[in-house]
Amino acid sequence: MEFSSKLLENAVNEMSQLPGIGKRTALRLVLHLLKRPEEQTQKLSSSLLKMRETINFCTNCHNISDSQLCEICANPRRDSQIVCVVEDIRDVMAIENTSQYRGHYHVLGGKISPMDGVGPSDLNITSLVEKVKDGKINEIIFALSSTMEGDTTNFYIYRQIENFNVVTTTIARGISVGDELEYADEVTLGRSILHRIPFETSLKS
Amino acid sequence: MEFSSKLLENAVNEMSQLPGIGKRTALRLVLHLLKRPEEQTQKLSSSLLKMRETINFCTNCHNISDSQLCEICANPRRDSQIVCVVEDIRDVMAIENTSQYRGHYHVLGGKISPMDGVGPSDLNITSLVEKVKDGKINEIIFALSSTMEGDTTNFYIYRQIENFNVVTTTIARGISVGDELEYADEVTLGRSILHRIPFETSLKS
Questions:
Q1: CATH of the domain spanning B6-54
Q2: I need a labelling partner for B4 at 20 to 30 A (CA). Which of A96, A169, B92, B188 fits?
Q3: Bridge partners of A170?
Q4: Nearest-by-Cβ selection for A10 from B10, B28, B51
Q5: Where are the zinc fingers (C4-type) (chains A, B) (predicted)?
């Protein structure tokens, strides 16, 4: 792509570094900013910069937070003895949206993925194991993606804590609400039969 | 969407002002920046800001340029008497990519669209008409979108310059290269028969 301006080219190049944004989309976004008041670009730039430079991570659960402890960890009405292990903060937001969970979280910051060069030491696993060793946790809920990487990460953590006095559970896998059986893959369907629950239990939620 | 951090929320809100970027995508982009070195966010912010604050438009054709005249207008080997009228600089880039055109451009900055509140006075039409009045142009090529708005804009400009000594042409509408006839819409197909060209001409390009 040939640009008539170096400034434009730089902006497009930087924008296209973002995931899922190609050169054409980047150009569209940048030209949009050019058409809008200068103020909008200033706000965008400064909000990104301020966030990147001053953002904080909760010292307890590694969730993004403006204070030392995030709102969830600082909330005395939440059960600190149940910890839900998730990949990133989007998962925290997704689970919080369900209003079904009143425990704490532990954000790993990813999952073990040798293909992407992510090993156990790149994730917040040590601090989780420490918490378990200190006997502060009764139950660990694994809520990672149902993929090879997610399962590997679950198992890696499980092996480190299995000898301590902690219950480990994993979120239920099964047919999504609203799904038709004939379109479900056989692994999911098979597991959903294997891990069936009493009908009375299903009526309660 | 509930955010655990005000800084994060601000960044996501600003990002989601961009066209085609919803809150979820904005969150993904912003979290990506958080995972990358701080330098990347700094580069992105400064390149956007610098572009927005110091960008220049060519005084002749309104194309984006780093100098007063864009490279195309400043090039003595290009024919300044032929002017191709386009909506925005993306169209200039698209036509330049074909290497088929050696004239100048005139960037309108949009098209007449009452639905979006864009009238003739919002576009760079006056300067084009002035150039025609001064007798500097032999041919005007309309290369706007083949839509109601594009046609309206073409016609609006045409009415202002029809009494001057200038040839007005429009880019050919027809079946795209590689298209199968049975899938072409009837208006396009009809026009492509109406505006058929000598077979020998088609062999040359």
A1: 1.10.8.420
A2: A169
A3: A142
A4: B51
A5: 58-73
CB contact under 8 A, A93 and B66: no
For A75, residues 6+ apart whose C-beta sits below 8 A from its C-beta are: none
The question of ipTM being above 0.95 is answered as no
Q: Tell me if A130 sits within 8 A of A166, measured CB to CB.
A: no
Size of interface A-B (CB pairs under 8 A): 173
pLDDT classification of A205: cutoffs 50, 70, 90 = low
Query: Residue B129, by phi and psi: left (phi above 0), alpha (psi -120 to 50) or beta?
Result: alpha
Which sequence spans correspond to the domains of chain A? 6-54, 72-171
Which two structure tokens, joined as six digits, stand for B187? 């208006």
Question: Which residues in A lie closer than 8 A to residue B92 (C-beta atoms)?
Answer: 4
Interface mutation target, options B44, B66, B67, B70, chain A, most CBs of A under 10 Å: B44
A90-99, A111-120, B170-179: range with lowest mean pLDDT: B170-179
- Nearest CA distance, A145 vs chain B (angstrom): 16
For domain A72-171, give the CATH number: 3.40.1360.10
Whether residues B15 and A44 touch (CB distance < 8 A) is answered with yes
Q: What is the pLDDT of residues B127-156, one digit of tens each?
A: 999 999 998 899 999 999 989 999 999 999
The Cα of B100 is separated from the nearest Cα of chain A by a number of Å equal to 15
pLDDT at A47 over 70: yes
Whether A45 sits inside 8 A of B40 (CB atoms) is no
